[in-house]
Amino acid sequence: MSLITNLTRMWLTRSVKPFIFKNEYDEVLPFADCEGLGLYVHIPFCRSICSFCPYCKVLFSQEACQRYVDSLLKEIRMTGSRLTEKKKVTSLYFGGGTPVLAAPCLNEIIDTIKRYFIITEGIGIELHPDDVTPSALRMLKSAGITKISIGIQSFAKKYQAVLGRKPVRAAALAEVLSQAPFETVSMDFIFALPSQTFEDLKADIDAAFQNGANHIAIYPFIDFSFTSSKVPVMGKKEKRRLLDQITAYCMKKGYSRTSIWTFSSQPEARYSSMTRDNFLGFGCSATTLLKNQFKINTFSVEESCARKPSLRKSDCKKRAFTSCFACVRKPVATASFKR
Ligand SMILES: C[S@@+](CC[C@H](N)C(=O)[O-])C[C@H]1O[C@@H](n2cnc3c(N)ncnc32)[C@H](O)[C@@H]1O
Ligand code: SF4
User: Fold this and answer.
1) Does residue 304 lie in a domain region?
2) pLDDT of residue 20
3) What is the pLDDT of residues 50-99, one digit of tens each?
4) Is residue 130 part of a domain?
5) CB of 55 closer than 6 A to ligand 2?
6) CA separation for the pair 184, 13 (Å, rounded)
7) Cis-peptide into 80, omega within 30 deg
8) Is the minimum distance from the CB of 165 to ligand 2 under 6 angstroms?
9) Mutate to test the pocket of ligand 2, among 42, 60, 98, 165 (most ligand atoms within 8 A of CB)
């Protein structure tokens, strides 16, 4: 297992022990008394699919998105209704996919969550650069979103071409961002692309902080074997050297390191759905970390939508319904570990 995979696992579980995957799950999720709980909602739709991307996503259609949101709302209600009183949670993050494609339903999703949870530290959403428009940002602000994270990948045309993405114009982005301030404006970059140098990355970091970001996430390129990516992979040592150079540069500039890959220029700027003790995930592929459990929801968007919660488990076994209440939250895997 690579160093990066090991670090990510330890970061997720806060344990050096390995995962033990079991094909089982608890019907009742023990989140009611979890301190520092964060919420995550996955919206798996994109306008086009990037070959390098490992996330759970499908091409957007209005009809599929509406069906997905309907099932998501059921899942939120089903989980929330187990609480006897409203529960305080730190944050709510929308990830994807491209969650803004569900924009007409964002208010309804947030309102449904707020029926059960009190969000104390704000709401975040991931944006594709194409979504950074004055009207979209106004809509997000009016829905109560306080943090945005924009998937830049690189400001250099050359590396956007390597990834098969369109160029992003920093100045145009800055102009739009200046019209709608958010507490956190994070920009995502991918490093360790073929022949990429520290000078290239320094230019990206500077361009981000000069054009409206107060936080950056700079991830090493990972060639996930199940994607169709043809991007050549940089050697481990070279990757490590780049990360060390990025870190030293950000420290010299006075930015604080907020996780392995993230840096912020202002103390209040934070963007992470996972660097917390406990989190509850809704929607396909969403993960849940609670006490000694790590759960992953199904990766099938279709299966996620098709499940119709019934009231009794026995009905499900008799196939009277597509699945029962418990099955709706059935993860593809459960990992147990001791902290
Ligand atoms: C869900 S996407 C961001 C939002 C939006 N869908 C977009 O593409 O702009 C999350 C981020 O994961 C990172 N990412 C995706 N695939 C990656 C890979 N193979 N290796 C490293 N980082 C990757 C990218 O930086 C991307 O912005
Ligand atoms: S990188 Fe973003 S836009 Fe591209 S497929 Fe992944 S989630 Fe969709």
Assistant:
1) no
2) 65
3) 999 999 999 999 999 999 999 999 999 989 998 999 999 999 999 999 99
4) yes
5) yes
6) 26
7) no
8) no
9) 98
